[in-house]
Amino acid sequence: MTNSYRAAICTALTGPDSVKIEQLPVKPLKPGEVRIAVQAAGLNFPDLLMTYGKYQFRPEPPFVPGIEIAGEILEVGAGVKDYAPGDRIMGGSKGNGFAEQIVLPMAAIRELPSSLSFAEGACWHGAAITAWHALNDKANLSEGETILILGASGGVGMAAVKLAKYKGATIIATGSSDEKRQAIDQAGADHSLDPADPDLAATVKKLTDGKGVDVVFDPVGGDLSITATRAIGWGGRYLIVGFASGDIPSFPANHALIKGYSLIGLRAGESGRRDPILAAQSNKSLKCLAQEGVMRPHISHSFPLEQAGDALRVLEKREAIGRVAIKMTI
Ligand SMILES: NC(=O)c1ccc[n+]([C@@H]2O[C@H](COP(=O)([O-])OP(=O)(O)OC[C@H]3O[C@@H](n4cnc5c(N)ncnc54)[C@H](OP(=O)(O)O)[C@@H]3O)[C@@H](O)[C@H]2O)c1
Question: Is residue 74 over pLDDT 90?
Answer without folding.
Answer: yes
